[in-house]
Every structure is written in structure tokens, then in C-alpha cells.
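Table S2 (text version). Query chain:
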Amino acid sequence: MARIEIPIEDWQIKPHDLWDNQWLLLTSGDFSSQEFNCMTVGWGSFGTMWNRPFALIAVRDHRYTYQFIEKYDSFTLSAFPKTFHKTLSVLGKKSGRDMDKINHSGLTPIVSETVLSPGFEEAELIVECKKMYWQDLDPENFLTQKIHLMYPQKDFHRIYFGHITAIFGEAKYKG
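Corresponding C-alpha cell output:
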């Protein structure tokens, strides 16, 4: 994949489309020790907080990736061409506890430039992040009933803010 480094001020995306339609592969762990896991995510955001560019991700504590995001200080978010949608669907539904889903997916993990967590060779966009904050969602603060309906099991997400340390993507992501 022909990716270039993209300065944050030149990065151009359609955030809602990226999260809601294209999805992202969240990966956390250590590439050098081959201890990492990934999961497909469709909820999150990008923005600025504490004068830093950030990615916000949400992970439930029963997900296998949760133990990696808790143990390691970094994560990556990788976007893929639409042809990988079926693969991302499987990576979002199957657990790394039960199978080597990364190997099964056919995706190729690659070393990142600024974090321990890997990206993927087949990705058209890789966002590298270092954790800078986390918070458990508190249902007492939900302001609409619709949000409560998203949690029938009461398995509320932990949210993480990751400082975006590098972005690599195809030229279409550079303004």
C-alpha cells in the first residue's frame, strides 16, 4: 500500500463516514514481542483536546482487546478499502481469545513509527496514538433514553483519549 506521512494539519477525512460506514481496526499491544490484538470499531471520534490532536475510542471490558489497551500505552486505528469489509466484520465479531484471528484474517501486521502497537500493510490509513486519558462511562450521565438502550447488559464502555502521534495514509487523506 502506498502510504505517506500526513501532518495533522493536512489530514482530511469524513469522520462520521470513516467510523460509521468504513469502520476502523483498533490494535493495541507490542509488535516486537508479537503480543497484540485487534478489534473492529465503529464508535469513536477525532478532535482536539488539551491542545493536542486526539482519537477517542470506546472498549467494553469483556472484549479481549481491553486487556491489551489496559496494559500498553498505545494503539493504532487502521482504515481499509471497502473490499476488506467482510474481514473487518469477522475481526469485530470473533475473539482473539478463541482463535488467532489476525493470522486467520490474512492481514499483515507491520511495525509502527511512533508506537509499539502495529498497523497493517493492507491499510489505506494508519493513525498512531499514545493514551493520555481514560474514563468509564457513567449511565447516571446519559441524557437520553436511547443511550441506555445501547447497553441492555449494562456493559458500559471505557473511553480512551489517544494523542495522535503520527498519521500515514494514501494521498487522498492529505488536503
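Notes on Table S2: The chain has one domain: 4-173. The two ends are 19 Å apart (CA to CA).
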